[in-house]
Write a structure and sequence with these properties.
The complex is a heterodimer of chains A (180) and B (503). Chain A has 180 residues and is mainly alpha-helical. Chain A has eight helices and no strands. The longest helix of chain B is centred in the N-terminal third of the chain and has 34 residues. The chains are: A mainly alpha (180), B mainly alpha (503). At the A-B interface, helix 1, helix 3, helix 4, helix 5 and helix 6 of A face helix 8, strand 2, helix 9, helix 16 and helix 17 of B.
């Protein structure tokens, strides 16, 4: 039994008051998000094209997805109370989310989105070069003698391998031909 | 017999042999690099195999799988950073041994145990796969539905922090598999009017996104981690005394690992942890565990490699993935035009023997590579992460794109990666989602066919003893562990105080 009054044992999500301690509040928020997604998906399923019962053979197209949505809903309702059944409470799960998402992860995600967008603009090969310059710089790589050969040779090798050996067509991008 | 010689002959072809070597080399490197995992490597390698014949392609991926499981032990022992999740238990005793100057002995034991476990499971694979495939030939849609449901229920017990989360992720995976045109009626489902989605969501971009991009975002938060490195390594084989000490541990772990591997969805990580626990439970020197017990290396290493061979049994015989990595291998099989399941064994038996041969060669190769190159492989972690992960993203981007030369697939990969990162933060692993995605079509099709067969009468499911057996196993998979824990608690409360005190 945990004797430390300051240690809730289950991380930030669990409050100390007796009634609310039954609910893990972080997981409660996760449940709300899952339920919202399920609600939206369920609404989409109600808009599926209707087909004659004979064609559907008594199994309309929305039946299986709706069954799955109900299963997810049922399981997600257990989430806020799951910590009560876990051997170590929610400590292990809370360990990974005890800290907020670091800005670096968000900036990296934004950069990756930018990189994928750049495929359509500059083409696949230049998008690779962009990734090989921007991501190391973002992550703190400042050694020019490492970085320069890397962003030249690595995308070049990958491009040659895929276009010449594996015969994959690379997207030229909207400005690709002009740049070339 | 003819099929066996044909299959093994194919593998001994110099080019195929070279591909297996490449698979092993990549596997050991990937296994040794913390953050990179076997499923990720197999997913990233998939696009490279498009131009290959199916047998060398699958042989290379299978070799990578075997070697990747072993590779994790190198960094687990030398820098206390398991390169792959199945090597977590190896670090418990491997690193303390390395710290007291026995890195070579620890690495040698890891290599020997891995090979022993791997070869044991391959022998079981060779015997069990045809038998299981033969039994599965009698399966009709209801049996397949029950089997798929059983496989999904096993997600409740795979490694991860929460059974409920694994089941939610599995169900979400099945739900994602419903995107596209409904086969029975031709109605578009969840396509949002996008023509790219009418074919459904392709497996490969989702796999790459979940395993590679999700981890990349995770790594972006841990750029300042530095590892303490053991530098003086003289790798030598374990002594005769070491062998005598661990021979039963290896045998027990090999059996346990193979069995766990054969169970749908259960993979090497569960096997390794159970192998470690069993090694400790049966050891006469329990107090040494955690401080550098040689059995603490033999147990998990034999078990995790045995699980790799075991996991191939349901994958090839039934078309039900035995682990996260075999789920990706299953996708590779489908991509190369094979239909995993009993017909694979019956129509192309030489294929199974070729895979057996490839995995056997891979085991022997990583034994040699692991012993001879441990020092080199441990230096792989010196590759700056600032260059490694951008390279992973470039391969992810090109891998997702080259599957069908579609930028839409790159977006699917990226969205899957971001969603996977957020899911992982809240304890939802990528492996259950992938399993659900792959089993989804089988679940829906077999359920629909069964309902048509039974004229919508659910009770007819219970007329088949095989279906009933799988449903009982499903219930045990879902509620067995909590029930045992609950009964254990009750037993502890009601047992006599003197016995409780004695314990």
């Amino acid at each position: 039994m945990n004797q430390d009054p300051n240690d809730t044992g289950v991380g930030e999500g669990r409050k100390k008051t007796s009634v609310s301690s039954l609910i893990h509040w972080t997981d409660f928020r996760v449940t709300v998000i899952i339920l919202a997604i399920c609600g939206a998906l369920y609404t989409v399923t109600t808009g599926f094209e209707e087909v004659a019962a004979m064609l559907a053979q008594n199994i309309p197209p929305e039946w299986f997805p709706q069954l799955l949505i109900w299963i997810v809903v049922a399981l997600s309702l257990v989430l806020p109370f799951e910590h009560l059944f876990l051997e170590k409470g929610a400590a292990e799960i809370d360990k990974d989310r005890s800290e907020k998402i670091k800005p670096m992860a968000m900036i990296t995600a934004a950069l990756l989105i930018l990189a994928v967008t750049s495929i359509l603009l500059f083409g696949t090969a230049l998008a690779m070069v962009l990734v090989c310059i921007a991501l190391p710089l973002l992550w703190g790589e400042r050694r020019a003698k490492v970085l320069v050969p890397y962003f030249i040779l690595f995308p070049l090798a990958v491009t040659l391998l895929f276009t010449q050996v594996l015969k994959v067509y690379f997207e030229p991008g909207a400005f690709g031909p002009a740049i070339q | 017999m003819e099929a066996m010689f044909q299959g093994l002959g194919l593998i001994l072809d110099p080019f195929n042999f070279f591909l297996i070597f490449c698979g092993v080399l990549i596997g050991v490197i990937v296994g040794a690099l913390p953050g990179l995992s076997s499923p990720m490597a197999v997913a990233l390698l998939l696009p490279f195999t498009i131009g290959l014949d199916p047998i060398p392609a699958i042989a290379m991926l299978s070799a990578l799988y075997c070697a990747g499981t072993f590779g994790g032990s190198i960094t687990a022992i030398l820098i206390n950073a398991p390169g792959a999740p199945p090597a977590v238990a190896t670090a418990f005793d491997g690193y303390p041994m390395a710290k007291r100057g026995e890195a070579g002995r620890a690495l040698g034991m890891a290599a020997v145990s891995s090979v022993a476990g791997g070869i044991f499971s391959l022998i079981v694979f060779l015997i069990a796969t045809p038998l299981l495939a033969k039994a599965a030939l009698t399966f009709r849609p209801p049996e397949y539905f029950a089997l798929a449901v059983f496989a999904l229920s096993m997600l409740a017990s795979i490694s991860g922090k929460s059974s409920v989360r694994n089941l939610i992720a599995g169900a979400a995976g099945v739900l994602i598999s419903t995107v596209g045109i409904h086969l029975t009626t031709g109605v578009e489902r969840f396509t949002l009017g996008l023509t790219d989605l009418t074919d459904g969501i392709h497996f490969v971009p989702v796999l790459i996104g979940l395993f590679a991009v999700g981890e990349l975002l995770n790594q972006s938060q841990a750029l300042n981690i530095a590892y303490e490195r053991i530098t003086s390594i003289v790798v030598r084989l374990p002594s005769r005394a070491d062998f005598l000490k661990v021979k039963w541990t290896i045998l027990r772990s090999s059996l346990l690992g193979t069995f766990i591997g054969i169970l749908p969805a259960e993979g090497s990580t569960v096997a390794a942890i159970m192998g470690y626990n069993e090694a400790k439970r049966w050891s006469k020197n329990k107090e040494e565990f955690g401080h550098g017990a040689i059995e603490g290396i033999a147990g998990p290493e034999a078990a995790n490699n045995a699980a790799a061979g075991g996991a191939m049994v349901p994958t090839l015989a039934l078309g039900i993935p035995g682990s996260g990595t075999t789920a990706v291998i299953l996708v590779a099989l489908i991509m190369h035009g094979f239909r995993p399941g009993p017909y694979l064994m019956n129509q192309t038996p030489h294929f199974i023997y070729a895979i057996f041969g490839a995995m056997m060669i891979a085991n022997l190769m990583f034994f040699v590579l692991g012993l001879a190159g441990a020092k080199v492989f441990s230096r792989i972690t010196l590759i700056p992460r600032t260059l490694l992960w951008p390279s992973v993203f470039v391969f992810s981007m090109i891998g997702a794109y080259s599957f069908s030369s579609s930028v839409f697939d790159v977006w699917v990969m990226l969205v899957s990666g971001i969603v996977g990162f957020l899911m992982l933060r809240h304890g939802f692993g990528p492996a259950p989602l992938v399993m659900g995605l792959i089993l989804g079509q089988l679940v829906e099709e077999s359920l629909s066919q069964s309902m048509i067969m039974f004229d919508n009468n659910w009770f007819q499911f219970f007329e088949s003893p095989i279906v009933v057996m799988f449903f009982v196993l499903t219930l045990l998979g879902l509620f067995g562990a909590p029930l045992v824990r609950f009964l254990g608690k009750i037993y502890n409360r009601v047992k006599p105080p003197e016995r409780r005190a004695a314990e």
